[in-house]
From TrEMBL:
Residues 20-137 form the Gfo/Idh/MocA-like oxidoreductase N-terminal domain. This is Putative dehydrogenase. It comes from the Bacteria. Residues 156-265 form the GFO/IDH/MocA-like oxidoreductase domain. Keywords: NAD. GO terms for molecular function: nucleotide binding. The keyword NAD applies.
Length: 385
């Protein structure tokens, strides 16, 4: 096996930087503000939070000058000349902020998870349809250069048999995570499940999951889980994770093994990719923007070129479905079939949607598969499943 590393200069003129508003000045909002300060792709022109002093403090402490701060997205957009919105609010506020952005006519890059439930996520797909706007989900852990190398290796292993991810961490993050239901599956595993789809191109069909809270856990709900997913073409995905395991901790990206027809590949989640295959396999480690900077680069490129980014909301539904199916399986002890879950979620989306135009659009799809594989920004991820 050989690995080559590209070195590449990124040069984008500052006047090409897209003016953006960040909504949400919490912990992750600060990470976005810091990243934007040196981004060649976008620049911060506005910051919105319901907590105005918090937003003002964030701008001051992060030395972000010339930034319009406020509690109203409409007003901050009007006063700042923003051309796009980055939604870094808590999951329960994602819809209202995305809706406001789309109704103003701006594309939005929204933090994961796109919604707290699948029906709420499906409603946002129809909202994007109705407005003709773009909602891209920032699944930032797709953007790691060694993940790209692993993906290349996996594409050369022939048919796949088994993929495993181990994620063992000890996170102390006071706030909503330590109080929420399923802090591992909902807040963290979505990254790994999404990366699985990205690496293999296989889509989830069903899952059997067990989730529990170890006796010493500092989380209110299940911080540990194991799950076995059946994927398209008979591939199995075996997941084991914990957010309260102090010792032999893995990377935030997890530790990956992929076993195929012609060999196997491993990624430690950081900077080590290893391939053991019948033939010599060459992979390149690119030097692209990583993590949220990579996500932003993909978003700006798609807005500028009017193309559909790979993490457009439609595509992300399958990643969220893996999370929700795993949580349901853990609660019932039963295997959960993803197509059944999606059909039930679609019916609930229609039954609970508050906007007439969005409800009518949902009903007009006829089926969830039709809705997720069509539309202006549509991709065909679930149609493949
Ligand atoms: N991609 C990653 O690796 C990663 C890492 C951490 C967090 N996140 C995601 O980022 C998001 C924010 O997480 P956080 O840790 O910063 O949360 P946080 O609680 O620290 O901050 C959220 C902020 O949103 C504000 N807010 C809530 N509702 C609002 C509304 N309607 N309008 C304007 N502001 C509103 C709150 O006042 C708060 O300041 C979550 O979706 C989380 O899952 C992603």
């Amino acid at each position: 096996m050989s690995i080559s590393t590209e070195s590449q200069e990124f040069a984008v003129e500052s006047n090409e930087r897209m003016p953006v508003v960040v909504v949400g000045a919490g912990a992750m909002g600060r990470s976005w503000i810091r990243m934007l300060a040196s981004s060649p792709h976008a620049r911060l022109v506005g910051l919105v939070d319901l907590d105005l002093p918090l937003a003002e403090r964030a701008v001051l402490e992060e030395a972000a000058s010339g930034v319009i701060v406020g509690t109203s997205l409409e007003e901050v957009v009007a006063n700042s000349g923003a051309e796009a919105v980055i939604n870094v609010t808590v999951p329960q506020a994602h819809r209202i902020v995305n809706e406001t952005a789309l109704l103003i006519g701006l594309p939005v890059l929204c933090e994961k998870p796109i919604a707290e439930t699948l029906p709420a996520a499906i409603q946002q797909v129809a909202l994007a349809d109705v407005t003709g706007g773009l909602i891209m989900v920032s699944q930032s852990r797709r953007y790691f250069n060694h993940l790209s190398a692993l993906r290349q290796a996996v594409s050369k292993l022939g048919a796949l048999g088994t993929v495993t991810t181990d994620f063992f961490h000890a996170d102390h993050e006071p706030g909503f995570r330590e109080q929420m239901l399923h802090p591992l599956l909902v807040d963290m595993s979505i990254h790994h499940f999404d990366a699985l789809r990205h690496i293999t191109g296989h889509e989830p069909l069903s899952v059997q999951c067990s989730a529990w809270n170890p006796s010493w856990s500092w989380y209110a709900s299940n911080a540990s889980a194991t799950a076995v997913f059946e994927l398209t073409d008979g591939v199995r995905y075996v997941y084991a994770g914990s957010r309260c395991s102090p010792g032999l901790q893995t990377s935030w990206n997890g530790s990956w093994h992929v076993y195929g027809e012609h060999g196997a590949a491993h990624w430690d989640g950081d900077h080590h990719v290893e391939v053991d295959a019948e033939a010599d396999i060459t992979v390149d480690v690119p030097s692209d923007y990583e993590n949220i900077a990579g996500s932003l680069a993909a978003f700006v490129e798609s807005v500028r070129n009017n193309t559909t980014p790979e993490n457009e909301i439609r595509d992300n539904i399958a990643s969220l479905a893996m999370v929700e199916a795993a949580a349901l399986s853990a609660a019932s002890g039963e295997r959960v079939v993803i197509a059944d879950l999606l059909a039930a979620s679609y019916a609930e989306a229609i039954a609970t949607e508050r906007r007439d135009d969005v409800r009518e659009r949902l009903a007009a799809w006829g089926s969830v598969e039709a809705g997720l594989s069509s539309g202006h920004w549509g991709t065909a991820a679930l149609a493949r499943a």
